[in-house]
Amino acid sequence: MKTTTTTILAFLFLICAALPLHAADVSDLTYDASGATIIITDCDTAASGALVIPETIEGKPVTSIGEEAFYGCISLTSVIIPGSVTSIESDTFYNCSSLASVTLPNSVTSIGSYAFSYCNSLTSIAIPEGVTSI
Q1: Sign of the CA dihedral 86, 91, 96, 97?
Q2: Which of 7, 18, 34, 94 is the most buried (most CB within 10 A)?
């Protein structure tokens, strides 16, 4: 019986390990569109590779990346944030362990605490001169 259980568990592990992650795109994003602007609130943790956040969604400008929006997205490798964004909230990219680069526009004026904590692969980020709060 132990051999059968071990075999089944090994088989299930192989199936799960073989499931592909999908390339990141706007369909992975969850957002708040209740006001005049868009706030990105979440991202599918299965998203992988490079993500380009659009400047507008549903005809409204994306102005903020919310708290913990990309928390634990361990397969994202790069994120480009559009020029419409002015704030990056706390813990936004927390534990995005494969994230190597983030492109911040000059429009960003605030970056919340721990926004890039545990981004162990992060090698490229330039903080815009206009950031007044970090």
Answers
A1: positive
A2: 94
- Supply the DSSP string of 6-31, one letter for each residue: HHHHHHHHHHHHHSPPEE--GGGEEE
Which pair of tokens denotes residue 15?
């199936």
Rounded Cα distance, 54 and 33, in Å: 14
For the stretch 37-46, pLDDT in tens is 999 999 999 9
pLDDT of residue 7: 54
What pLDDT score does 61 carry?
98
Pairing of strands 38-43, 29-32: antiparallel
- For residues 22 and 48, the answer to whether their CB atoms sit within 8 Å is yes
Cβ atoms of residues 102 and 124 within 8 Å: yes
| Contact between 98 and 74 (Cβ < 8 Å) | yes
pLDDT tens for each residue of 51-94? 999 999 999 999 999 999 999 999 999 999 999 999 999 999 99
pTM: predicted TM-score of the whole model, two decimal places: 0.81
